[in-house]
Specification:
alpha/beta, 6-stranded mixed sheet
Length: 435
């Protein structure tokens, strides 16, 4: 990890210090994804199959979650594994049911004019679940359960095939716990293209989806970006690319815990980025030494090392300046490992998820704390939050006006319409008063 003294940097240097890995924006990613998207738009399922064979070595498959298949997956797991998945699913369900938007009561603007907001679920949602080098069945729970709570009409889940060509049993069991009927084994930009344009494949048909959800690597993130820019194309949840974690650790933070949290994100992907911010040079030294020590025994050490090459260890004046750095970076995950960490939350304005105190491991949020771990990356946390039940819904205003309300409001609306030079607007208002 690169060591940086924040106070020694000018404005340009601070921007550079908080830059995301360059690989995320390489031209080859953009160009290749555009080629895939254009090919699928033109050739449909044939293109999806060709790209899947070329990139993943396997044709797309639809796995129907029959009772026998789910039972076989359950039997392949340890009882403690299935209990943990069920408990995580229940915690996610509890949180999203509790935070599901409700229709508002009528607001009487003036006598005879009432307005309210009503919420409706999306008709369809495409759910991308990473699964190439690691089967992230947790992401399936974090997407499919909020979508079900929202009442989405059609949920289409896609995930890359494993090296064996078969999904991990935990992926099948989690899909069943989330109430899905099937799981498509398709990955990468070609999966996003199939959800965008629709595709007729050997195992069935994928219909276009209204909105696309889910984290992924740089290729998936770019495909979602291109899909959302198409005329009439799908909406997307957010930029949800390679993982990010910023840890604010004061002089009293436990180096072993801070290092473990940094490595928990670094092992995700070579393009993941971890940042340590502290006012204590001694604790930065201790945490980085712990990173090196713990790294030696990690199964995914090579991936973590590649990520750490893009990491930063930033020394600041105090915890207040550390919060300023965090808000500038706007991390996907922010860990506050300081004395009285809860007092810092009010200083934070840009983060996908905040983990308060030494006991709040980011890993708990990844799996079982309740809120979805699908969160904005690449600085998008400055303007948007993570996936919630509301992400799978739309709101509409409903306005009800009686004769008395029209008599009071129409003259005002008509005058304002004429002030803008919109006579037809004004006449439509006048008609409500017999004018």
């Amino acid at each position: 990890m690169k060591r940086i003294d924040w106070s020694a940097l000018d404005a340009a240097g601070r921007i550079e210090a908080l830059a995301r890995p360059q690989r995320r924006t390489e031209a080859r990613v953009t160009d290749t994804v555009r080629e895939i998207m254009d090919d699928v738009r033109t050739r449909g399922g044939g293109a999806v199959t060709d790209w899947s064979l070329k990139l993943d070595g396997a044709a797309p498959r639809r796995l129907t979650l029959t009772p026998d298949r789910v039972a076989a997956a359950r039997d392949a797991l340890r009882p403690a594994d299935t209990r943990s998945i069920r408990m995580a699913a229940e915690n996610i369900r509890i949180f999203h049911e509790a935070t599901r938007p409700e229709d508002t009561p009528d607001v009487e603007i003036i006598p005879g004019v009432r307005s309210r907001l009503v919420w409706r679920p999306l008709r369809s949602a495409g759910l991308y679940v990473p699964g190439g080098s690691a089967p992230l069945f947790s992401s399936l729970l974090m997407l499919a359960i909020p979508a079900a709570v929202a009442g989405v009409g059609r949920r289409v889940a896609v995930t890359p095939p494993s090296a064996s060509g078969e999904p991990h049993p935990a992926m099948i069991f989690a899909a069943a716990e989330a109430g899905l009927e099937a799981l498509w084994l398709i990955g990468g930009a070609q999966a996003i293209a199939a959800l965008t344009f629709g595709a007729e494949l050997d195992d069935g048909v994928i219909e276009p989806c209204d909105k696309l959800f889910g984290p992924g690597n740089a290729w998936v993130a770019e495909a979602k970006k291109q899909a959302s820019s198409l005329p009439g194309g799908p909406a997307v949840d957010m930029p949800a690319g390679p993982s990010e974690l910023l840890v604010i650790a004061d002089r009293d933070a436990d180096p072993e815990i801070a290092a473990a949290d940094l490595l928990s994100q670094a092992e995700h992907d070579a393009d993941a980025q971890v940042i340590l911010v502290s006012e204590s040079r001694a604790n930065i030294d201790a945490i980085l030494a712990e990173v090196d020590r713990q790294l030696e025994t990690l199964p995914r050490a090579d991936t973590a090392r590649a990520s750490l090459a893009e990491g930063r260890a930033i020394r600041v004046r105090d915890v207040a300046e550390a919060c300023e750095v965090a808000n500038l970076y706007a991390p996907e995950h922010l860990a506050l490992q300081t004395v009285e960490a809860d007092r810092l939350v009010d200083r934070i304005s840009a983060a996908g998820a905040v983990f308060v105190g030494a006991f709040a491991a980011e890993t708990l949020g990844d799996y079982a704390a309740g809120p979805s771990h699908v969160l904005p990356t690449d600085g998008a946390a400055r303007t948007m939050g993570g996936v919630t039940t509301a992400s799978f819904m739309t709101s509409m205003s409903v306005q009800t006006v009686d004769e008395a309300g029209a008599a009071a409001l129409a003259p005002i609306a008509a005058r304002l319409a004429r002030l803008e030079g919109l006579e037809a607007h004004a006449r439509a208002a006048d008609l409500r008063t017999g004018g």
